[in-house]
Amino acid sequence: MFESQDQDCVFMETHMNPKRRQHMVLECIPLPRELGDMAPIYFKKAIMECDEEWAMNKKVVDLSSKDIRHAVPRGLPYFSVDFGLQGGFAHVIEN
């Protein structure tokens, strides 16, 4: 759909409170292709800079070779971003 308009899509997923079984938020954001090519770099940098120094979990989980269900421990809130065929990143939200 967006390819015919020369655009890329970035998919962002936020799952904040799995213990209360609240639903996740999934967003699809169309970007011009030149911005879409740079999006993985920007998101990885932002995720690396956002967390506390003494975090218990990895800051960035690479999703290029695994699914979000196998990358983030069950029951933890998380944020993930996916770049289509390029894979994506996940981050466990600790506070």
TrEMBL record:
Pfam families: CwfJ_C_1, CwfJ_C_2. Residues 53-95 form the Cwf19-like protein C-terminal domain. It comes from the Eukaryota. GO terms for cellular component: post-mRNA release spliceosomal complex. Residues 1-44 form the Cwf19-like C-terminal domain. GO terms for biological process: mRNA splicing, via spliceosome. Belongs to the CWF19 family. This is Cwf19-like C-terminal domain-containing protein.
